[in-house]
Amino acid sequence: MQHVVSQLITKKEELQGELKYCKQRIKDLEEFIRGVDTSIALFDPEYNVKAIKTKRYSPNKHYFKKGESHTLILDTLRNADKPLSTSDITIQILKLKDMDTTDNNLRINVQKTLSSTLKKQVDSKLVRETHTDNLNNKYWEIAA
Fold first, then answer.
1. How buried is residue 121: exposed, middle or buried, by Cβ count under 10 Å (0-12/13-18/19+)?
2. Distance of CA 24 to the CA centre of its chain
């Protein structure tokens, strides 16, 4: 029981540290935005900066070098003795790259990247989808 409490305390400490970092990051971004607004006003005092639309933020998702995901997927499927799900491929590639397989956000983001690559490989007739299970997981193999 004490071990569980100790782990929960550690988790809370980590979350508090992350929250403190995020709050500081928000302050820094707001200050930077004010600086950009000031710069716009210098060049065009009449410009309505409030009319500037917010773009959707997408964190840097460069988990792979150019062409690396393509090669890793093909290698993973070549070494498999049966069709693999997108999730199985993702986990194997995370392990191969020494990435944290327990980080759910990382796994989801890498899986999105790999799914996109798999679709391109299907279009190129390198890979084919064998089936989709009852949980909507797609399974893949090398195209013969």
1. buried
2. 23
Q: CA distances (Å), 13 to each of 8, 20, 65, 103, in order?
A: 9, 11, 34, 18
CATH number of the domain encompassing residue 111: 1.10.10.10
What three-state secondary structure class fits 131?
Answer: strand
Identify the sign of the CA torsion 82, 83, 89, 93: positive
| Percent of the chain clearing pLDDT 90 (strictly above) | 86
pTM of the model: 0.60
CA angle 133, 139, 144 (to 5 degrees): 135
Query: What domain range is 15 assigned to?
Result: 2-51
- What is d(CA 114, CA 109) in angstroms, rounded to the nearest whole number? 9
